[in-house]
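Input (structure):
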C-alpha cells in the first residue's frame, strides 16, 4: 500500500533586490522576540526573510554583527526625557522606566545586552545620563557609581523576572493552579503568606506597577526623601 507523503509548501521567496539592512534587522528583532536568542541563527533569519543564507551575509558578516546592530537599534528607541528639563530624581525615574519598557517589550534586547554587553553610542549615552543625574542629585562620585549599578541591576532583574513569569503563566489554567496552591497552604505554618496571598498575587500580576513601586523605593533610599 502506498502512502501519500504530505506536500510541503514552497518557501515564499522575497522579491529580488528588496533585501536591505533595515529589513534584515526588522526580521531579526521579530525572530529574537518570538523565539529567543538561543534559537537565533543565520539560517533561521534567512528563512524568516524568505531568502538564502548567503543573501543575508551580503549585508552583515555574521550573527554577532546582526545581534550588535539589533541591540543598538533597540537602545535607540528608549524615550529619554529632555536633558535638564526638571529635577534629577524625576529625570532618572523616566530613564529607568524607559529601559524597563524596552526590556519587557523586546525581551531580545535584554538577552542581547546581557549576553553581549554593548558599548555603542546609545548604550554609553544611557550610562552617562544616569551617572550625571545621580551626581547632580548630590551623590558623591563613588556613591553615584554604586547607585547606577544598583538601579541597572534592579531594572534588568525586574524585566527578566517579569518576562519569564509572564511566559510561564501565559495560560489561565496555570494561573489558577498557582492561586489554588496558595489557597491550600496551611495558615498555621505560613500565616503571613496565607493572609497576604491576594495582595501578593495582585502585585505580581501588575508587573509594571510593581517595578515602579520598587523603583520609587530605591530612589528614595539612594537620594533621600524628596
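Output (sequence):
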Amino acid at each position: 500500500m502506498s502512502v501519500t507523503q504530505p506536500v510541503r509548501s514552497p518557501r515564499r521567496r522575497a522579491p529580488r533586490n528588496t533585501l536591505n539592512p533595515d529589513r534584515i534587522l526588522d526580521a531579526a528583532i521579530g525572530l529574537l522576540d518570538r523565539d529567543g536568542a538561543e534559537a537565533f541563527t543565520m539560517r533561521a533569519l534567512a528563512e524568516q526573510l524568505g531568502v538564502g543564507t548567503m543573501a543575508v551575509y551580503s549585508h552583515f558578516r555574521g550573527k554577532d554583527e546582526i545581534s550588535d546592530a539589533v541591540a543598538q537599534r533597540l537602545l535607540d528607541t528608549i524615550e529619554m526625557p529632555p536633558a535638564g528639563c526638571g529635577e534629577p530624581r524625576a529625570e532618572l525615574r523616566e530613564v529607568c522606566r524607559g529601559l524597563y519598557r524596552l526590556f519587557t517589550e523586546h525581551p531580545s534586547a535584554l538577552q542581547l545586552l546581557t549576553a553581549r554587553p554593548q558599548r555603542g553610542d546609545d548604550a554609553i549615552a544611557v550610562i552617562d545620563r544616569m551617572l550625571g543625574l545621580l551626581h547632580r542629585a548630590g551623590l558623591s562620585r563613588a556613591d553615584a557609581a554604586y547607585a547606577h549599578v544598583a538601579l541597572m541591576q534592579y531594572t534588568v532583574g525586574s524585566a527578566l523576572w517579569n518576562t519569564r513569569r509572564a511566559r510561564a503563566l501565559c495560560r489561565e489554567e496555570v494561573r489558577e493552579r498557582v492561586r489554588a496552591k496558595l489557597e491550600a497552604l496551611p495558615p498555621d505554618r505560613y500565616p503571613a503568606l496565607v493572609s497576604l496571598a491576594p495582595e501578593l498575587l495582585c502585585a505580581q500580576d501588575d508587573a509594571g506597577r510593581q517595578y515602579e513601586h520598587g523603583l520609587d523605593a530605591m530612589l528614595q533610599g539612594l537620594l533621600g526623601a524628596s
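Notes: Residues 1-11 have pLDDT under 50 and may be disordered. The CA atoms of residues 131 and 146 lie 10 Å apart.
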